[in-house]
Amino acid sequence: MVPEIETAQIEEIKLLQERKLAALISYLADKSPFYQKLFKTNNIDITGIRKIEDLAKIPTSDKDDLQQQNEDFFCVPRTEIIDYVTTSGTLGDPVTIGLTDTDLERLAYNEAISFACAGVQKDDILQLTTTIDRRFMAGLAYFLGARKLGAGIIRVGAGIPELQWDTILKFKPTYLIIVPSFLLKLIEYAKAHNIDYKKSGIKAAICIGEALRDQDFELNVLGNRIKSEWDIALYSTYASTEMSTAFTECSEQQGGHLHPELLIAEILDDEGNEVPDGYPGELTITTLGIEAMPLLRFRTGDVVVAHRLPCKCGRNTLRLGPVLGRKKQMIKYKGTTLYPPAMDNLLNDFSEVTNHVIEIYHNEIGTDEIKIKINASSASERLLRNIKDHFRSRLRVSPKIEITDLREIQKLQASKLGRKPIRVIDTRTV
Asked: Which of 118, 125, 111 is nearest to 153 (CA)?
């Protein structure tokens, strides 16, 4: 299930996106209170927005706009909203996103072609280890996508290794949709309960929420730990509630593929200019084909590197490398620029570390400080020294690291919506 447009020539892809962009601009000018005001305030002649390059004439919007003017982004009356979801609220209050029946069909199509990108076929069965409730879009998208593709899906939900293994052994799924670090917990449980997990029939995992690869697409520490224990295929996928679209790896595993019929992607610097190929910038998206809450030049807050050369899988679409971090969580620590995912990855080198949370705050002179609270199965001063030395060798600096009771860490990680644990607590003020 590979849409023809994804293997078309780059010029053909651009022409399709420009046709859809023209329709979107007209729709927003007619239906969206937020964009009507934006066009008027900035004296934008919408008839002059026809090519991808013309997007530069339009100011960007961001999560602050969505939070402060949430209602103004709705383009349809509430009677046409079929489903309501909210963002995770990691960097602020959750934002409400509404979906019409057409939007739900688009969401299903997106996930079906994303699953197909990762090799899922109609005769596969997927085990969903994330929640489908609690206003979580991703769980719903996975279910709808599997249904659209014709594959089977088992909605187990988050956690509970015993239930996950009972389901695997009973229903014989072939794919897991899972947070990669939870794979290690499943392996640990299987070993402790004499489950031959290598003969379970699982052939691949579609991994969400945590990076599996470095920027060169080689497996990172977490990815290597998983593969050394369980030789299954690992596919990364990246998405956000706001864009209702996923970037998923193909068999070549050289970045997540853009679905050009659903999204226009720009990679911008702080001034709103496109960065050169191979350089990091903020993913800025324009959604195509959404009815309820379409977005135009929306800054996601995620820092990524785009790759534009054709992929060996046959697709000619833009690919995204692993997310470097969230722009608002960039840290300037002792002259070094850091993002939390880099620190998460280094901690995965230590099997003794069972859980952690990263705290970012300003010290008394207003500069960035980092404290990492860890729980360890065998805590010692030697372990702390080894972790700090490892940080210095890989990142050139070492933050404060302290051993903390597991219950305190779990309390810090508890989110308001209870959908996924909070790994980073940022109390800095602008």
From this structure: 125
